[in-house]
Amino acid sequence: MSDCIFCKIASGEINASIVYQDDEVVAFNDLNPQAPTHVLVIPRKHVSRVSELEEADAALAGRLILTANQIVRDLGLVEAGYRLVLNCNEGAGQSVWHVHLHLLGGRTFGWPPG
Ligand code: 5GP
Ligand code: ZN
Predict the structure, then answer these.
(1) How far is the CA of 65 from the centre of ligand 2 (A)?
(2) Using one digit for the tens of pLDDT, what is the confidence trace for 46-86?
(3) Mutate to test the pocket of ligand 1, among 7, 19, 32 (most ligand atoms within 8 A of CB)
(4) Per-residue DSSP letters for 18-35?
(5) Residue 5 C-alpha to ligand 1 middle, in angstroms?
(6) Alpha-carbon span 45 to 6, nearest angstrom
(7) Would you say the pTM of this structure is higher than 0.90?
(8) Nearest C-alpha to atom 24 of ligand 1 is from which residue?
(9) Which end of the chain is more exposed for a tag (fewer CB within 10 A), N or C?
(10) Which positions are catalytic?
């Protein structure tokens, strides 16, 4: 999508601090981190929100989680704990309309989330 900021990050048109990328997904540091580690994992394919992922996207949806798991393993964050978050729509705090998995780590997290 031409006016989507995360599509532009995926294509390299806009700079981001990329921590991992392959044919399907891109992971980059959040511009406004909410934890010592705050990475966003996105599909290269433009999907506006998690609720729009379909049966055909099952493997892609899995890639988002497996990519996050590899990153936390590489960073040594698994044992301490980490949080994966998908905000869907304004009521849940979604502000960028390209599905993204938040990977948060490096501190403790309260529950329930705000
Ligand atoms: P949401 O609120 O939609 O769940 O999360 C959007 C996230 O994208 C926010 O944490 C915000 O800081 C991050 N973000 C917004 N624009 C940019 C950008 O241009 N670059 C990067 N790296 N992160 C961004
Ligand atoms: Zn997009």
Answers:
(1) 18
(2) 999 999 999 999 999 999 999 999 999 999 999 999 999 99
(3) 32
(4) EEEE-SSEEEEE-SS-SS
(5) 9
(6) 10
(7) yes
(8) 31
(9) C
(10) 100
